[in-house]
Every structure is written in structure tokens, then in C-alpha cells.
Amino acid sequence: MGIPLTGEFRARALDILAGRIAPAAARDAATVVVLRDAPLEVYLLRRKATMAFAAGAYVFPGGSVDPRDADHAVAWAGPSPAEWGELLRAEEGTARGLVCAAVRETFEESGVLLAGPTEDTIVADTTGWDAEREALIDRTLSFVDFLDDKGLVLRSDLLKPWGHWITPEIEYRRYDTRFFVAALPYGQRTRDVGGEADSVAWMRPQQALDLAKSHEISVMMPTFHTLTEMAGFDTIAGVFANDREIVTIMPQVVEVDGEMRLDVAR
Q1: What are the structural domains of the chain?
Q2: Three-class DSSP category at 114
Q3: Which residue ranges does the record assign to the Nudix hydrolase domain (predicted)?
């Protein structure tokens, strides 16, 4: 079981296990599985081959937390940051940043915006906001200022916590990532590409798994695991009705018959 480690990563794993080098610190990050029904599909984007992390892999929208995501000025509706802190087992400020990053990154990478003019409405159409998306992507615009300019409030109630993955210690870039799920809001549509992607696709979870197993697409371990879980549902309602316990997962290096492998450890 697990993924064999060879070459550079095998040597790095041995150095870390021996205490010769320290693993990189993991940055807080958020990933959102955007869903649509009839049939149940997930939104995936392929990261550009030039990216330093997960180049060429199909992933869900997401990214690291911007320090400004934790700004208390973010207009907020739904469960409070304190309530999210309990759900995510994180400090309130960290939870605020994670939820805000989840909404911001989803908008940046898909055009889907989980926000509305009031606490019980959702913006119907984000067409024409590409300039704002680009400004968010290059960090010349903060998410709090974007929401303020548009007169919108973040809808934290449109997210459901789903998973918690920490990048293994052998990686040079590491992320402490909370996974969320969200339904594609009525009337909104996804864009063709985001700042870090060169193509996007809506797929049935099992279709994506089959393509990954046949090596037609590349997916990382957390994505494969999450797709496997999504494949067990027929509808968005079923996903949101799932009474889920969040378990932290960090793949770890193990030795199997003299071979170094990366395997899931909970």
C-alpha cells in the first residue's frame, strides 16, 4: 500500500526521519468541493504545468489563507467564526481566515461567489466581475474591500466542513488544508479558467476516479480520497445531510519490505 518514494524524495524522507533536516512549516489553506446536481458532479481545474506545487494535477478550487482573510471587517452571515472554530477545531481567528479563504478562493478560481446582498440571499450573477477576480488573484484587492465595494456579505452557511489534510513532511511546500463542500448557487455559472489553471471540467466523481486510475489525469491523494467519498452520494442534499466527523489526515513515510512509501496515517 502507499506510494513508493524514490530518488530525491526518498533521500529527503531519510534525512527528515534521521533528524538531519526539519520539515517545512504547513500554511493554513482552504479547498472547496463545488457540486451541482442531476447528475451529481464536481468542479475540477487542472493546475498549470509551471506551478511549483501539484503541477498538472486536477484539484478543487482552493489556496492558502491571505492574512487579510481574518479581517474582522469582513461582512459575515451564517455561523459565526467562533462556531466555525468549534467545527474546524481551530482558534476563532484561524477559523475566520479559513472560511473567508474558502469563499475567496472559490470565486477566484471558478467565478462562483458564496455571498449575497443580504444574509439570506445569494448574488445571482458574477458576469462582468473578471477585473475584480484578477485583482483578488494578484492580491491588489482584499476580499473585505471587494465585498464592501459590491455591498455583499459572506454566506458562511453555504459551506459544509468536510475534511482536514496536512501535506506530508517530505514535501518542500506544505499546507494545513481544511476541505469544504458547497453547492453551485442557482443562476451562477463557472468560468473557463482561474489564475493557476489551464483547463477546467465538471465530472462525475466516479468518472474522475476512473480517469485517475487509468493515469489519464493526475490527482493528489487528498483529491482522490475526497472523490471516493463523493462517489458514494447521488445528490447534493445527500452530501449535506451526511453527519460527518472531521478527522485530520497527514500521509506519512513508512518502510515496507525495505522500501520507503508514503501512506495515509490518521
Answers
A1: 24-261 (3.90.79.10)
A2: coil
A3: 25-225
